[in-house]
Amino acid sequence: MTTTEQHPETFDAAAAEQFAGRMLNTLNEAGLALMTSIGHQTGLFDSLARLGEPATSARLAEQAGLDERYVREWLGAMTTAGVVRFDAGTSSYALPAEHAAFLTEAAGPDNLARLTQYIPLLGEVEQPIIACFRNGGGLSYAQYPRFHAVMAEDSREVLDAALLDSILPVVPGGAERLAAGADLADIGCGRGHAVNLLAKAFPRSRFVGYDFSAEALEAARVEAAELGLDNATFELQDVAELDVRDAFDIVTAIDAVHDQAQPAAVLRNAAAALRPGGTFLMVDVKASSRVEENLDNPLGVFFYAISTMHCMTVSLGLGGAGLGTMWGRQLAERMLGEAGFTSVSAVELEQDPFNYYYVATKA
After folding, report:
1. Burial call 241-266: b when 16+ CB within 10 Å, e when fewer
2. Angle (CA) 290 296 298, round 5°
3. Model confidence at 9, in pLDDT bands (50, 70, 90)?
4. pTM metric for this prediction
5. What is the rounded distance in angstroms from the CA atom of residue 176 to the CA atom of residue 204?
6. Tell me: the pLDDT tens digits for 314-329?
7. Signed CA dihedral, 210, 214, 215, 221: sign only
8. CA separation for the pair 320, 218 (Å, rounded)
9. 45 with 113: CB under 8 angstroms?
């Protein structure tokens, strides 16, 4: 018996038709996300923008150094999506400047094409995640070979644009302390770009990055060597087991806490590692711990999807808490208090509308 037959008086045919339209649109938008990711990774958006004038598929393929047949089909997707404009008379394609502002490397942190890479990346683990739905448990970081690289690319643009001028000033007296000579640790540092930027800007201070990915740390060390830094070091360390006391003036955790297996232990260790009067800066997704308060979040669905298919599951895969990406401000502030921090505030930055910047101090 169909739903209509069961409840004929309550079935809203108009609402059903509207929802069907939404699902059809979802299929188109999902296809657009995949094609946008490909356009970003192959440099097609940048090549089209650099041409500065409408171009045929053959000319664009030549400019980008790609196969014309694939470029032509990609352009078909971009045209039907309204991203690229097509002139049938000249068989040429153009990328409007208003679109290039959010799709090219010149856009810097505003390059949303970069984020679409997460869609195919997460799609690679769809079947293992379905198994987790049925059997519980989680996946390991090893099942995401490209995740560190995509995360590093994503965060690099924000850090390059905002770390020194906008993010560091969130820490009271942070720049002054580092200029005079201080100690800073970054937990879950990944490829260490934040550490290296700070070490270059503040040669009198000492910086250490902790992470449990040997591959990511090697990339961090290579960058430090290329920059000629002698005040930045990187250590292979599960920060849930970090045993350092009163060693740092500032500790940072940039998008690194919510996917930890033991986040409460990580926060306690961060507090213990700080000297009295030290500051902990935790950057994490701007969200509420209450799902009903996330209905207006412009990336709510995206963040819950990333949580399900990466952040939550890698924590559960280690027998952990499985906080997930959308653990939210209420829980974050409570856990920071329980970790031993005496004051906690959540700062919002105009340059980064998708994260909270939690500032916590140690008495």
Report:
1. ebebeeebbbbbbbbbbbbbbbbebb
2. 115
3. confident
4. 0.91
5. 11
6. 999 999 999 999 999 9
7. positive
8. 26
9. yes
Which pLDDT belongs to residue 147? 85
CA distance 288 to 326: 7
Are 139 and 128 within 8 A, CB to CB? yes
* Residue 244: alpha-carbon gap to chain centroid: 28
Report which of 97, 65, 93 is spatially closest to residue 79, judged by C-alpha positions. Answer: 93
pLDDT > 90: what percent of the chain?
Answer: 91
- Residue 360 CA from chain centroid, whole number: 22
3-class DSSP state of 70: helix
Tokens encoding 353: 């509308």
User: d(Cα 133, Cα 135) in Å, to the nearest integer?
Assistant: 6
Query: What is the distance between the alpha carbons of residues 74 and 47, in angstroms, rounded to a whole number?
Result: 14
Backbone angles phi, psi at 8, to 5 degrees: -60, -30
Instruction: Spell out the residues 6+ positions from residue 153 whose beta carbon is closer than 8 angstroms to its own.
Output: 114, 117
Residue 361: strand pairing partners: 279, 343
**How high is the mean pLDDT of the chain?**
95
Q: Which of 133, 171, 116 is nearest to 282 (CA)?
A: 171
- CA-CA distance, 20 to 15, in Å (whole number)? 9
Q: Which of 322, 294, 325, 319 is nearest to 307 (CA)?
A: 325
In the chain, DSSP finds a helix count (H) and a strand count (E) of 16, 9
| 278, 195, 339, 148: CA torsion to nearest 10 | 170
As a whole number of angstroms, the distance between CA 289 and CA 234 comes to 33
The predicted-structure confidence for 44-69, as pLDDT tens digits, reads as follows: 999 999 999 999 999 999 999 999 99
- Let me know: does 358 contact 332? Beta carbons within 8 Å: yes
Q: What angle do CA 214, 220, 226 make, to 5 degrees?
A: 140
Amino acid type, 234: F
Hey, what are 165's tokens? Answer: 């001028």
Residues whose CB is less than 8 angstroms from the CB of residue 333 and which lie 6 or more positions away in sequence, other chains included: 344, 346, 358
